[in-house]
Amino acid sequence: MLIMADRLSKERRSWNMSRIGGKNTKPELKLRSMLHRAGYRFRLHRKDLSGRPDIVLPKYKTAIFVHGCYWHRHPGCPKATMPSSNTDFWTEKFEATVARDQKNISEIKKAGWEPLTVWECELEKDPDGVLSEISEKLEGGR
User: What is the pLDDT of residue 40?
Assistant: First the structure.
């Protein structure tokens, strides 16, 4: 196995990684726009719900998490790659993220809310299909 050294210094790589935001990502903004155009009204990042869901639809008691395939390890997705160096660190980091996601979903359910996860790649491939699925779940529960 060939292991390539990072072209950036450890400090520069750390600085770059620290700039990756968790709110208002492109997929999240895209979904918010689609939901708003479809007539859904929502709140953002509610602190009182576990995991601060990206989009909260109080009328439907639904919390939506918009997950990046790489960071949240979308099963079977080609975007969920593993870095070739420092694999122990990355494995531990990714496993902690997945465990935190599962805990947040469990706590949302316990609070009586319906959690939904939208994956970045699904939103890129079929945005209309994603919106249809969400609408079916929201309107079907009425």
Answer: 97
Name residues whose C-beta falls within 8 Å of residue 9's C-beta, 6 or more positions apart in sequence.
none
How far apart are alpha carbons 30 and 34 in whole angstroms? 6
Question: What DSSP state is assigned to residue 22?
Answer: S
User: Structurally, how many domains does the chain consist of?
Assistant: 1
CB 80 within 8 A of CB 44: no
**Do residues 64 and 54 make contact, with C-beta atoms less than 8 angstroms apart?**
yes
The model's pTM:
0.84
33-67: pLDDT as tens digits? 999 999 999 999 999 999 999 999 999 999 999 99
Neighbouring C-alpha atoms within 13 Å toward the C-beta of 14: 3
User: Which residues constitute the domain of residue 69?
Assistant: 23-140
Residue 39 lies in a domain: yes
Order the strands of the 62-67 sheet from edge to edge. Answer: 43-44, 55-57, 62-67, 114-119
